[in-house]
Design brief:
- The chain is α/β, with parallel strands linked by helices.
- The protein folds into three domains: about 190 residues, Lambda Exonuclease, Chain A (Alpha-Beta Complex), CATH 3.90.320; about 45 residues, no CATH class; about 210 residues, Ribonuclease H-like superfamily/Ribonuclease H (Nucleotidyltransferase, domain 5), CATH 3.30.420.
- The protein has 19 helices and 14 strands.
- Strands 1, 2, 3, 4, 5, 6 and 7 form a seven-stranded mixed beta sheet that branches. Strands 11-10-9-12-13 form a five-stranded mixed beta sheet, sandwiched between helices.
- The structure holds iron/sulfur cluster.
- The site of iron/sulfur cluster (SF4) has 12 residues, from helix 2 and helix 9.
């Protein structure tokens, strides 16, 4: 087969996810949107972890990867040195792969070590390494074992980062061997796909978000009408079954199609155009609220490399809270907030500031309580003097998500979501669109920018203002939601 194009490791993985994505990537790359901030963050974290992994091989040689040809040339020269090589590149029959760490073992064998910022081995990692092994063996190297060097989520930073504790190695040789079965055929198929003049038609499917969210999703899913079956609460499989039958909207779902109670509510709301309201259940929920009401929301950040002593990889570290206090029915809310200055571990100051403004009685209203409770419990573990206080708070916390997750209130405009980002606009007409930071991920990444000193002082000020506005809307929004629920059941 004539092979004009190069198939890299990431092309191989993209192609396994979807032929169409690979074809567009290689033939019409302008159609691929730039990675969003959260994808870029994941990529950056990967690079950071890669740098720590190199420290485990003090005699390793770093082969610059910027210049493709130079990388191949240097790899060829350095193989004879029998030292661990970082970013060694191999190209055979138009397949190309770089290896994070190629480690010499025994007299003439090598181990492949792939470094990942994840905390466990995923299916895609096995295919990733199988392609590396394919390229190495085609080149003529003898590969003994394959490993995934990934984050050890039990590691706790004590002082300086210890790469031996931060990273743990999993032997994936057997799994990679299995994935090598049929690899030549898969590669041939991908070459056929990428040299085709036209991209073969691919239906949308579960591959669109697995193993990664495909960047072409907006384009490929654009044919679906408003309020389509993919807004079905909690189930994508049913939506794909309906799609196969040519059913795109809730209104067209046949009566004999199995739907659970919540999905039935969704369909009925779509058909009659009215919200579903279970007044009795909402009343019961509202009756659990005891004044004074503390509407509370936390923002956290996390990072693969623990930033402070006593933290683990990916631990959610709270850096901001907003608290609106309503003393009694119809009283004006009083606002308190905390936003760490970003120079040090914020946890001590965070919990001390919270304790000052959170009174000893009254309900604490949050949205999705597992998150806030988790943060508080981890703070108490780290700072045991707050243990009893946090234990007392747990019983006072009330989750405003409950009436919406239980579909005691549902409006089709929520699009199958019980998130505050969907509920608030529907119930109150206020949304997050006017804010420069409009979700928790953006808040977390913005704060990481502040602490990493990647932004100028003026920009930091702006980020801090945006964070304050965003977090305050989450808590003030909860007041408006509760007021609206009260109005609905009056
Ligand atoms: S959105 Fe789905 S169908 Fe479209 S290219 Fe991506 S994976 Fe393929």
């Amino acid at each position: 087969m004539a092979r004009k194009k190069l198939l890299t490791k990431s092309d191989y993985l993209d192609g396994l996810q979807c032929f169409k994505y690979l074809w567009v990537m290689l033939n019409e790359p302008d159609r691929i949107p730039e990675p969003d901030t959260s994808t870029q963050h994941r990529i950056d974290q990967g690079h950071l972890v890669g740098e720590w992994a190199k420290k485990l091989f003090p005699d390793g040689i770093d082969i610059p990867a910027d210049d493709f040809k130079d990388n191949l040339r240097q790899t060829e020269e350095l193989l004879n040195k029998r030292k661990p090589l970082f970013e060694a590149g191999f190209m055979v029959d138009n397949t190309f792969s770089r290896i994070d760490v190629l480690k010499p073992v025994s007299k003439d064998e090598w181990d492949i070590i792939e470094v990942k910022s994840s905390t466990k081995v995923k299916g895609v990692d096995i295919h990733d390494v199988s392609f590396q092994r394919y390229c190495c063996e085609k080149y003529g190297l003898k590969i003994r074992n394959c490993y995934l060097l990934h984050i050890n989520n039990m590691y706790i930073k004590q002082s300086e980062i210890d790469p031996k504790g931060l990273l743990t190695s999993t032997d994936i040789t057997v799994e990679v061997d299995e994935a090598m079965n049929g690899i030549q055929k898969r590669i041939d198929n991908l070459f056929s796909a990428i040299v085709a003049r036209k991209c073969s038609a691919v239906n949308i499917g579960e591959q669109c978000s697995s193993p990664y969210d495909c960047p072409l999703k907006e384009e490929c899913w654009d044919f679906l009408p408003e309020n389509n079956v993919f807004e079905m609460y909690g189930e994508k499989k049913k939506a794909f079954t309906l799609l196969e039958k040519g059913i795109y909207t809730f209104k067209d779902i046949p009566d004999d199609f199995p739907l659970n109670g919540k999905q039935e509510i969704q369909r009925n709301c779509e058909i009659n155009g009215k919200p579903y309201i279970e007044k009795k259940a909402i009343r019961q929920f509202l009756n659990t609220l005891q004044y004074p009401l503390y509407y509370m929301d936390f923002e956290t950040f996390s990072s693969a490399i623990p930033p402070f002593n006593g933290t683990k990889p990916y631990q959610q570290i709270p850096f901001q809270f907003s608290l609106h206090v309503v003393e009694k029915d119809n009283a004006t809310a009083k606002h308190h907030s905390f936003l760490a200055d970003g120079t040090d571990d914020p946890r001590n100051e965070f919990i001390a500031s919270l304790k000052k403004v959170l009174g000893n009685s009254g309900s604490i209203v949050v949205y999705k309580m597992d998150f806030e409770k988790g943060v508080l419990n981890r703070l108490a573990t780290f700072l045991p003097k707050y243990n009893n206080w946090v234990e007392g708070l747990n019983d006072r916390i009330i989750d405003l998500l409950v009436p919406f997750r239980s579909f005691h209130y549902y409006d089709a405009k929520q699009k199958g979501s019980a998130s505050i980002k969907n509920v608030l606009p529907v119930l109150t007409g206020t949304n997050y669109d006017h804010l420069d930071i409009s979700d928790g991920m953006e808040a977390s990444l913005a704060f990481l920018d502040v602490i990493s000193n990647n932004v100028a002082e003026k920009e930091k000020m702006k980020i801090r203002e945006d964070l304050e506005k965003y977090c305050a809307l989450d808590t003030e929004g909860m007041i408006w939601i509760v007021d609206k629920l009260k109005e609905l059941v009056r």
